[in-house]
Every structure is written in C-alpha cells, then in structure tokens.
Automatic annotation (TrEMBL):
Binding residues for substrate: 23-27, 72, 148, 203, 312
Oligomer and partners: Homodimer.
Catalytic activity: uroporphyrinogen III + 4 H(+) = coproporphyrinogen III + 4 CO2
Database matches in SUPFAM superfamilies: UROD/MetE-like
Recorded metabolic or biological pathway in which this protein acts: Porphyrin-containing compound metabolism; protoporphyrin-IX biosynthesis; coproporphyrinogen-III from 5-aminolevulinate: step 4/4
PROSITE patterns the record matches: UROD_1, UROD_2
Protein family per UniProt: Belongs to the uroporphyrinogen decarboxylase family.
Physiological role: Catalyzes the decarboxylation of four acetate groups of uroporphyrinogen-III to yield coproporphyrinogen-III.
Enzyme class (EC, first level): lyase
GO biological process, one term: protoporphyrinogen IX biosynthetic process
EC code: 4.1.1.37
Name of the protein in its database record: Uroporphyrinogen decarboxylase
Amino acid sequence: MSDLLVRAARGERTERPPVWLMRQAGRHIPEYREIREDYSFVEAVTDPAVAERITLLPWERYRPDGLVLFSDILTILEPLGFEYHIESGVGPVIENPVSGPDDVDRSREPIPERLDYVGELLDRLEDRVGDRTSLIGFAGGPFTLASYAIAGEPTRNHLPARKFRLQHPEAFERLLDLFTEAVAEFLAYQVDRGADVVQVFDTYAGVLPPADYERYIVPRHREIVAAVDAPTILFVRNMNGRLGQLAAADPDVVGLDWTVEMGAARDQLGDLGVQGNLDPSVLFADRATIRERTREIIEAAGPQGHVLNLGHGVDRETPVDSVRTFVETAKNVRW
C-alpha cells in the first residue's frame, strides 16, 4: 500500500502532503454523468460493480493518495429502519422520518449483513488499487443523520432537529445514541474490510450553540473515534473559533472547512493532524491562482500531519483540469 495518507493521518512528517478531495468521484467527471444515465444514485451505491467503476474514476484521472468509497452518508440509515431515495432538485428524502419521540426506537438489522455491498466494494478496490493508494471509508455523523431523519429532507438551517432537541431532549439523545452506536460499528466494519483511513462527516453539527455541541456532540464523537482502529478524520463545518471542541473528540485529524485560516488552526491545534482546506471556489480560477492558493495552505500547514483537501466537496461544475492542477501541485512539493 502507498501509505503516505496513513502516515500523515497519524501525525507523521511526510515528504509531501497527501492529497484527495471530498466528492472527488462526483458529477464534475464526465464519465460519472454517463454512468448515472443508466443507474439511479441508490442503484449505483448499492451495486458493488458500479460503485467500483465510479470510485476508480478519479484514480484514472488524478492518481490521488486516497480513494474515498463511492457511497453516501445516509447508507447507515438502511439497517436502522429508515428508507430513503434521492429526489432531483431536493436531495436525499427520508420516506419514513421520525414523526415524534415515540418513533425514535426502531428495529435494527445487522450492519454487516444489510450493508455487505460496502464490504464487497472494499474487497474489489483492495484487489484493484490497494497496493498503490489508501482506501478511505466514511459515514455520516450523529447530528447530521438526525437532521435528515427528523426533517425527512435537507433543510437550510436544520431547524426541525434543533426544535426536536428542545421539545423532546430525551428522545433526541436516544436518537443520537442510536446513530452513534451504528456509525461506530459501521466504520469498524469498513476497517475490517480494508479501509485504511475513515472520515466522520458530521457536517451540520456546527449549527448547534457551543454549549449544546459540548453536551450532545463531543462525547458521541469521542465514542465513535475510540471504536475505530484506524486513523480517523472528523469533519464539521462552521467550527471556526471552536476548533477545541473538534479536538476534544480525540480524532487523529481535524477536517477544516475553508473559513478557517490554516496557520491559526495549526497554532491552536498544535501537533494534531489537520486536513484541508482550499476554498472549493478557487478551482474555478486560472491555474496559476490555483497553484498559488494551494501552496499557501501547504506552507501554512507544514510538513507534519497535513492531509491536503478542499474545505468541502468538489462542486459539480468544477473543471477537470482544475482538479488535476490542485492534485499535481501537492505532488510537486518536496519538503
């Protein structure tokens, strides 16, 4: 295995920063759009052969240092009694959302059996590229899953989940506990099946006030991290000024969105690993600007424990050449 990503995620000094991108096997790649003409999103995710083809698309174009599974943060909802689909123009829609506090406790299926297609995808990727790059597993985080489960669809400010926590605090904690236990088990399963690094996407948890984040989120993130025997990246948006709450979960790497200044994050987090954090909109600039802004982040992060990434996912309209420029900039660095 090419272990550059694993070494950086463990906080080691590396000869250059490893690089991958969130949503790197997405709609910015023309071949992805062609494949999706024949399959719905859920069909593509749950068919290991199709998911393998999509996961490998960025490898064929960019040779990143990590391949993130083509999957979805809501996959873990399936064995927990939730059904969902992707609705054009809306996004993920939960067909049977949480209707009230009595609807939180649901029957649960064994994760390895219900989500065996994820294990098969990892087996396939291990056979194809496991000796040349690191495999990245992931799952949604407890609050992000709760936001979808309560609202039934994406919401701009996650008000349904925030109201639920105030009106039904005990049920809200039971729901978070359900997701915490399931996410920890799911990530451990991915590691058992070959994932070298995993990331927790609790993207929306940053909407909570600091006191509520401390109460509801930090201990559950800590529980997930402790259950995984592999380097773990924790990503939450809108945490500028609250990085200490991310560090309190004891992840190996803190994912930074683009609103955080990398140098300031390094000063605050010390030796803790960091990931990020180029503003995704920079990939719409000219190549010279992309190289300059990328190098600024690399230099601010330094040679130890830095995983280069965007501050969030690749936008669907991003030019392929811009992504290639970003990746190649990292590969041309030598400390």
